[in-house]
Design brief:
- The chain is of the alpha/beta class.
- The chain has a single domain, classed as 3-Layer(aba) Sandwich (Rossmann fold).
- 31% of the residues lie in helices and 18% in strands.
- Strands 1-2-3-5-4-6-7 form a seven-stranded mixed β-sheet, sandwiched between helices.
- The longest helix is centred in the middle third of the chain and has 15 residues.
């Protein structure tokens, strides 16, 4: 069945890109990688999403690498054993430090359920549920994230054709639905460690993520 692709939102403009700080962020674990951080205004919600831009990837003629990374305080900052979010972020930072690219850092903790609810879900996972079952037990759908604002951010940067860094088919589908052309999908590695094997297996079996687990 043919599905008509949504056209870019005509209300989106480069004026949505508000403040661009040209600073040496030195992002990434034990790294010395320069990047810029950009804030936005006029997005769909009041969430404070930001773009992290490597090697001026939004202003070159190349089709940039882009990763939509949903905030994960427990994984990104505290290196939780329950997920692979921090490792995926570090892998992407290293890749973009070499090749250039854009990370859209989205404030969507716990696939959209929020930090406190995610901690509740952790408790249920400790009782044997997988990550999706735990969210469902708390009354939430599998994934509450809406990537409309990610598309708005890219359009505000005048970026509508990308190489998307993801293992998640939902992200590919949703960006295409909002007028972003994806010319290539670049998978991240499977970051298997003590504590996250069931989480990764659930991503594959339930979320249909493209992960190669040995």
């Amino acid at each position: 069945m043919h599905t008509e692709m949504h056209q870019p939102n005509k209300e989106v403009s480069e004026d949505m890109a508000e403040v661009r700080a040209r600073v040496d962020l030195k992002v990434g674990a034990k790294s010395n990688i320069d990047a810029e951080i950009l804030s936005f205004r006029g997005l769909k919600t009041d969430k404070e999403h930001v773009a992290v831009i490597f090697k001026h990837a939004d202003s070159t003629q190349d089709i940039p690498l882009v990763r939509m990374h949903s905030e994960c305080l427990t994984g990104d900052v505290f290196h939780s054993s329950r997920c692979d979010c921090g490792e995926q972020l570090e892998e992407t930072i290293t890749k973009m430090g070499a090749q250039g690219g854009i990370i859209l850092y989205l404030r969507q903790e716990g696939r959209g359920i929020g930090l406190y609810n995610k901690i509740d879900a952790y408790r249920l996972q400790s009782q044997g549920m997988d990550t999706y079952q735990a969210n469902n037990e708390l009354g939430f759908a599998d994934d509450l994230r809406d990537f409309t604002e990610a598309a708005q951010m890219l359009q505000a940067l005048n970026v509508t054709k990308i190489r998307l860094v993801t293992n998640n088919p939902k992200k590919v589908h949703d960006l295409k639905e909002h007028g972003i052309e994806i010319v290539d999908v670049v998978n991240t590695d499977a970051h298997l460690k003590d504590g996250n094997e069931n989480y990764l297996k659930a991503k594959v079996s339930h979320g249909h993520h493209h992960l190669k687990l040995s």
